[in-house]
Design goal:
The protein has 388 residues and is an all-alpha fold. The chain folds into two domains: 178 residues, Growth Hormone, Chain: A (Up-down Bundle); 179 residues, MFS general substrate transporter like domains (Growth Hormone, Chain: A, Up-down Bundle), CATH 1.20.1250. It is 84% helix and 0% strand.
Length: 388
């Protein structure tokens, strides 16, 4: 029996928990990759393809699910995708080969692509009119806090109980959240226009495609490092507990960076903020390499690198909203797809660098990628200002 009157704060809490689950499922793969590689007798680079498959599937599926949600209802799509997400995690837990693992990650990526945009849309509708941005920011923080706490807990659990039980537990939580989301969100009365064509696809716009390039290259450099962070730390002798602590530093830095990134952009401008973030990330990766070589201040170096990196994303979002006011929802949705496209490229490039040389070399490669992103961002931002 459905609850007829729902406290908005309960909706906010469940939305936050749902994004925390999605983030944990994604970010926990990095510290678990060494265990997966050992069990399947494959290299860490090959095991890292599981991240690529998830990210690529998410990137391709998000616009599709967004359109489906507009037609059949966001609540229905959200709950259906959480049920599929449950099955995907159970399939991951029972994978016995690389092929079955990749198939499970494909399913998980598609399901996650339907969950995230539906949660954002539902919480936007539920929030008080004068606090929509605040509520959306709080929900996004669930995704980032999963990096600090969910992935760290998963790393410890994976080392002590094996990687498979981690995904069983994620599947159970996904099933519970499917039931909770079904209860707290109202049935949507669809507009008669929902089934009508939406017109020209906004990604046909060269301007929008160009503005998404910095997001792609930024996430490529950032996640080229993060995907193999667990394996890289293990290679230099870090224990499981030390790896979990390092990831906690990284996650806390991400939370700090994304919370202050928008504020900094409002004060000094989005062009300065995005440029400073990308240039700073290049420097931070080189500092992190020195920290790993000496074994000193690795955790703080990771935290600062993550914070500097995350200054970029809210500033980029603010820039897109300003430049595409009539397409803001679509522009931000494609920006999210660009993020996952970059994650896919980063995990591939990072895997090649780690396999052919070392994790240290991967840091140098990703520092170069961040510098390229900085240069492209400068050109794109200048072009935007000239058009304005």
């Amino acid at each position: 029996m459905r609850i007829t009157r729902i406290c908005p704060l309960l909706q906010l809490a469940i939305a936050w928990s749902t994004m925390f689950l999605i983030g944990t499922e994604l970010f926990v793969m990095s510290p678990l990759i060494p265990f997966l590689a050992a069990d399947f007798r494959i290299s860490t680079a090959v095991a890292g393809v599981s991240v690529t498959v998830f990210s690529a599937t998410y990137m391709a599926s998000a616009p599709v699910f967004g359109n489906v949600a507009d037609r059949v209802g966001r609540r229905r799509v959200l709950v259906s995708c959480l049920l599929i997400f449950t099955a995907a995690n159970l399939f991951t837990a029972s994978a016995t080969s690389l092929a079955s693992l990749l198939a499970a990650r494909f399913l998980a990526g598609a399901a996650a692509a339907g969950v995230s945009p539906s949660v954002y849309a539902l919480i936007d509708a539920a929030a008080p009119s004068d606090r929509r941005a605040t509520w959306l920011g709080l929900v996004v923080s669930g995704l980032l806090m999963s990096l600090a706490f969910g992935a760290s807990a998963g790393a410890i659990a994976g080392a002590r109980f094996g990687w498979s039980p981690v995904f069983v537990l994620l599947g159970i939580f996904s099933l519970l959240l499917a039931a909770m989301n079904w209860q707290v969100w109202p049935h949507e009365a669809l507009s008669k226009d929902a089934s009508k064509p939406q017109g020209r696809h906004p990604f046909a716009s060269a301007d929008l495609a160009l503005r998404l390039a910095p997001t792609v290259i930024w996430s490529m450099g950032l996640y080229g490092v993060y995907t193999y962070l667990g394996a890289g730390l293990m290679a230099i002798g870090f224990s499981t507990d030390q790896i979990a602590e390092a990831i906690l530093f990284y996650g806390c830095g991400a939370i700090v960076g994304v919370l202050i990134g928008g504020h900094v952009a409002d004060r000094v401008g989005v062009k300065f903020t995005t440029g400073a973030s990308l240039a700073g990330l290049c420097v931070c990766f080189l500092v992190l390499r020195a920290a790993l070589d000496t074994g000193l201040f690795v955790g703080p170096a990771l935290g600062v690198s993550s914070a500097v990196a995350q200054l970029f994303f809210p500033a980029q979002q603010a820039s897109l909203v300003k430049e595409f006011p009539n397409q803001r929802g679509t522009a931000l949705a494609w920006n999210n797809s660009a993020l996952f496209f970059g994650i896919s490229l980063g995990s591939l490039c990072g895997g090649i660098a780690v396999t052919l040389v070392s994790f240290d070399a991967n840091l140098t490669v990703c520092a170069s990628i961040a510098l390229i992103a900085c240069l492209i961002n400068r050109v794109v931002s200048s072009g935007t200002q000239q058009r304005s």
